[in-house]
């Protein structure tokens, strides 16, 4: 089955700096890669996603890149703000199976 | 519109008790998923429904876990004879599930503590 590795496990940046979180996946059949933000005690919130037919997608300060050959994808947050502090999860979907496989999460702390 | 809702939000059970966790998906969403999230970990898949049909239950950890969605909307996850290792947050997610729409939206979860 699918295996998703996520790094780093914790990331501390100064407000205004950029943050990058990286994930690798094992199943070449995966073709959908969402990112979720989870604040303490809250539900995972879908913040951006990418499908395998594109290499990059942007939404304001957030971007995701995908390298299908290397089987890795990354989340980029620019101009970080304290409210970006949360745990971020990457995931991969094998549509043959329908279920998401999640990475282990990255705790991002943005220092004001 | 209304998102995915779950109840109860918190449940404390004594070891050996049965529990039932409810999920109300987004109206019209065909697909419904249950995930288990241990402290400090990512969600792990338990089971998947398309309408009322349970198409994948490969993630259920034991035969003490049972899920149903009899009318294709509300779903219940039941855990019999709870054990301490069942303590976790149980998340429900739903998706339109039609024509390649695969985005999953999560509920707030039920935090189960088995004492």
List keywords for this structure.
heterodimer; A: 112 residues; mainly beta; six-stranded mixed sheet; five-stranded antiparallel sheet; 11 strands; 0% helix; globular; B: 115 residues; seven-stranded mixed sheet; four-stranded antiparallel sheet
Summarize the structure.
The complex is a heterodimer of chains A (112) and B (115). Chain A is mainly beta.
Compressed to H and E, one letter per element, the order of chain B equals EEEEEEEEEEE
User: Spans of chain B with pLDDT under 50 lasting ≥5 residues?
Assistant: none
Count of helical regions of chain B:
0
Largest interchain contact: A-B, 23 and 26 residues
Order of H and E elements of chain A: EEEEEEEEEEE
State the end-to-end CA separation of chain A.
41 Å
Per DSSP, what share of the residues of chain B sits in E-state strands of 2 or more residues? Answer: over 45%
Summarize the amount of helix of chain B as a percent range: under 10%
Mean pLDDT level of chain B = 94
What Rg of chain A do the Cα atoms give? Answer: 13 Å
The overall average pLDDT of chain A, rounded, is 94
- Portion of residues in helices of chain A? under 10%
Oligomer state of the chains in this structure: heterodimer
